[in-house]
Amino acid sequence: MTTAADLRARTKELLAAHPPATTERTAFLRARFDAGLAWVHYPVGLGGLDAPRGLQAVVDAELGAAGAPDNDPRRIGIGLGMAAPTILRYGTDEQKRRLLRPLWVGEEVWCQLFSEPGAGSDLAALGTRAVRDGDHWVVDGQKVWTSSAHVARWAILVARTDPDQPKHRGMTYFLCDMTDPGVDVRPLRQITGEAEFNEVFLSGVRIPDSMRLGEVGEGWKVAQTTLMNERVSIGGSRIPREGGMIGTVARTWRERPELRTRDTHQRLLELWVDAEVARLTGERLRQQLVAGHPGPEGSGMKLAFARLNQEISSLEVELLGDEGLLYDDWTLRRPDKVDFTGREAGYRYLRSKGNSIEGGTSEVLLNIVAERVLGLPSEPRTDKDVAWKDLAR
Amino acid sequence: MNPTTEPHQADLLYSEAEEDLRAAVRALLTDRNDPARVAVRAEEGAPYDAGLWKALAADMGVAGLLVPEELGGQGASHREAAVVLEELGRAIAPAPYLTSAVVATEVLLACGTGGSAASSLLGDLASGRRTAALVVPFATGPEALRLPGGTACMVTAVADAATADVLLVPSTAGLYAVERAEAGVDVAPLVPFDLTRPLATVTLTEEAAAAATPLAGAETALAAVRQGLTAGAGLLASEQLGLAEWCLEETVRYTKERHQFNRPVGSFQALKHRMAQLWLEVVSARAAARNAADSLAAGSPDAPLAAALAQAYCARVAVHAAEECVQLHGGIGMTWEHPAHLYLKRAKADSIALGAPGAHRETVGRLAGLPTPA
């Protein structure tokens, strides 16, 4: 069993062999991957050491203290949080060897082709078709809400391979090359003015059967791994007090006494309490993970943070008074990562509206908590045994 | 204080020993505490079951968790006492645990155990042979403390005074211990909103004041009482957590069984979402309550903030859980027969006890450096 001391020693060896000050960033990250220190809970040879996940913090702390570069996880979040665990679980040896290293290093960005205009919360209703053609699949359809599609080399894709089956059964999961000529990526402008997401049109895209993940018709099962990892993407590190959006508004409160009113004070205190308790709840979850007893709390953290981000940024805009009437920039930007704190309050207020929609709406997450954590019965279903092609749409 | 630095890294989990303690207390309460009997005893004006207290306090030794072993206690900490309170809250068990084994005990410990009077009293409380009550209105939080000008005084809404053997009476003159049975001590029971926690008006004549045993001088007394109320508020959060947890579990259980429109009512999203929301509040309350218990146990400078934070949050969660429990039970939730009303009354009274959430939020604001407007 790998211990914290082993990891510290290995990290020191890595730093000695590849001093961050004199090593090019990509070269350092590749060396870190090859040393098994990328994600220590992954298998040996695939960037890990089969070590307990909680020990990653030990490596991160050592590397951080030595000023080593990181892989800019926010830029490659979909690859790290969603594609990688799914490839690890369902991928062939060849797929794992080819894809995981450039994914982790950040040389190849990943995006997710799941949602469609007609399949949002009801993802299993998706209609993008994949038809077998010899040792390839030919894909046609439209995907939406695709972050990073304009910079992505690869996509995880779920498509319908058998419309005669009920909706959950006729899907297959693929790894799609975004440089295929049939892939057309168009910016999707949001309420913030920027286009962080895209629409992706797939016309006659040819995917080799070797880039299928899991069995034909098992796409829904494979996608569950992706989605569970999306919602439980709690990091391995502690969040400091006032570490989130509450920190920004608290600083404004301290630095600008002229803005203070009795009403905003009461609301600020309520939100400060809620934010600090949410932070402690995340910290408790982290301690459970480190102790090897993950709790179901992760399912609720996204709900809590969506509400907090929305209410805190709303208060912040109001607190700013005249300045709250202004906006920093409506021009159509194409950011390659989301930055909740880099822009102004008005931006945060608008962007956080997405927090209760993206990655599962808060309403769907409440259903998941109710049914999977509390064991409450599901609503009666009318779509379960109906062929996908016969569903109302 | 710089709010972005945290002097104390709280352990928010339960140890194995704490889980064992929980199992033992829960087994005892399952065996000995019947919510239906609680309501009956409460109406008879005697909610406390002496047998239950003896089993808990004397036989299991949980009354002495905060008291060092050399004074006859268990030498444990607020972490363990918090686990006991979670279980008492869960079972809505009427027992003078919070008032005697936490608040009064903490006050005596903060007086310094050099004096023989405080020490011998602590030994009595730890053994569960006797109980004590702090003579301040039960709604008093650590920040709102106003002491009477002398030991001869009249104080209303004092929790557990009627059953306490000893009254701890703070005033601007200092802290004194008075036997409840002493001449000149009048303890007049009130009709409490929370049937499971007796309240009384305590009146002490000059004669009783003269017979009182001094425990601490004015300055020590004020700090000790404040410390007792802080620990009480911080650990009350664990009682609120246990209470909320029962309300949620019972509501989930009931709505899975109860059928209307040919379906379990718990399958309707309108109800499910409310229970899922409550679940999120309960897991959050657990983090806040453990943080308070651990900070108090460590004697951290962060403890007053942790206690205020926990109380500001958990008080609201307990009330919400009990209100949802009543509503989602429908008609049966409104009856005297179903125990939901006991939980609602306890939750609402607890939210006022030891400082209302608004008062604790103000404390949080002061300690976190978020000043009130000029």
UniProtKB/TrEMBL annotation, chain A:
<dbReference type="Pfam" id="PF02770">
    <property type="entry name" value="Acyl-CoA_dh_M"/>
</dbReference>
<dbReference type="InterPro" id="IPR009100">
    <property type="entry name" value="AcylCoA_DH/oxidase_NM_dom_sf"/>
</dbReference>
<dbReference type="InterPro" id="IPR046373">
    <property type="entry name" value="Acyl-CoA_Oxase/DH_mid-dom_sf"/>
</dbReference>
<dbReference type="InterPro" id="IPR006091">
    <property type="entry name" value="Acyl-CoA_Oxase/DH_mid-dom"/>
</dbReference>
<keyword id="KW-0274">FAD</keyword>
<dbReference type="GO" id="GO:0005886">
    <property type="term" value="C:plasma membrane"/>
</dbReference>
<feature type="domain" description="Acyl-CoA dehydrogenase/oxidase C-terminal">
    <location>
        <begin position="217"/>
        <end position="374"/>
    </location>
</feature>
<dbReference type="Pfam" id="PF00441">
    <property type="entry name" value="Acyl-CoA_dh_1"/>
</dbReference>
<dbReference type="InterPro" id="IPR052161">
    <property type="entry name" value="Mycobact_Acyl-CoA_DH"/>
</dbReference>
<dbReference type="Pfam" id="PF02771">
    <property type="entry name" value="Acyl-CoA_dh_N"/>
</dbReference>
<dbReference type="InterPro" id="IPR037069">
    <property type="entry name" value="AcylCoA_DH/ox_N_sf"/>
</dbReference>
<keyword id="KW-0285">Flavoprotein</keyword>
<dbReference type="GO" id="GO:0050660">
    <property type="term" value="F:flavin adenine dinucleotide binding"/>
</dbReference>
<comment type="similarity">
    <text>Belongs to the acyl-CoA dehydrogenase family.</text>
</comment>
<dbReference type="InterPro" id="IPR036250">
    <property type="entry name" value="AcylCo_DH-like_C"/>
</dbReference>
<dbReference type="InterPro" id="IPR013786">
    <property type="entry name" value="AcylCoA_DH/ox_N"/>
</dbReference>
<protein>
    <submittedName>
        <fullName>Alkylation response protein AidB-like acyl-CoA dehydrogenase</fullName>
    </submittedName>
</protein>
<feature type="domain" description="Acyl-CoA oxidase/dehydrogenase middle">
    <location>
        <begin position="111"/>
        <end position="195"/>
    </location>
</feature>
<dbReference type="InterPro" id="IPR009075">
    <property type="entry name" value="AcylCo_DH/oxidase_C"/>
</dbReference>
<keyword id="KW-0560">Oxidoreductase</keyword>
<feature type="domain" description="Acyl-CoA dehydrogenase/oxidase N-terminal">
    <location>
        <begin position="27"/>
        <end position="107"/>
    </location>
</feature>
<dbReference type="GO" id="GO:0016627">
    <property type="term" value="F:oxidoreductase activity, acting on the CH-CH group of donors"/>
</dbReference>
UniProtKB/TrEMBL annotation, chain B:
<dbReference type="InterPro" id="IPR036250">
    <property type="entry name" value="AcylCo_DH-like_C"/>
</dbReference>
<dbReference type="Pfam" id="PF00441">
    <property type="entry name" value="Acyl-CoA_dh_1"/>
</dbReference>
<dbReference type="Pfam" id="PF02771">
    <property type="entry name" value="Acyl-CoA_dh_N"/>
</dbReference>
<keyword id="KW-0285">Flavoprotein</keyword>
<dbReference type="InterPro" id="IPR009100">
    <property type="entry name" value="AcylCoA_DH/oxidase_NM_dom_sf"/>
</dbReference>
<feature type="domain" description="Acyl-CoA dehydrogenase/oxidase N-terminal">
    <location>
        <begin position="15"/>
        <end position="113"/>
    </location>
</feature>
<comment type="similarity">
    <text>Belongs to the acyl-CoA dehydrogenase family.</text>
</comment>
<dbReference type="InterPro" id="IPR013786">
    <property type="entry name" value="AcylCoA_DH/ox_N"/>
</dbReference>
<dbReference type="GO" id="GO:0050660">
    <property type="term" value="F:flavin adenine dinucleotide binding"/>
</dbReference>
<protein>
    <submittedName>
        <fullName>Alkylation response protein AidB-like acyl-CoA dehydrogenase</fullName>
    </submittedName>
</protein>
<dbReference type="GO" id="GO:0003995">
    <property type="term" value="F:acyl-CoA dehydrogenase activity"/>
</dbReference>
<feature type="domain" description="Acyl-CoA dehydrogenase/oxidase C-terminal">
    <location>
        <begin position="224"/>
        <end position="366"/>
    </location>
</feature>
<dbReference type="InterPro" id="IPR009075">
    <property type="entry name" value="AcylCo_DH/oxidase_C"/>
</dbReference>
<keyword id="KW-0560">Oxidoreductase</keyword>
<keyword id="KW-0274">FAD</keyword>
<dbReference type="InterPro" id="IPR037069">
    <property type="entry name" value="AcylCoA_DH/ox_N_sf"/>
</dbReference>
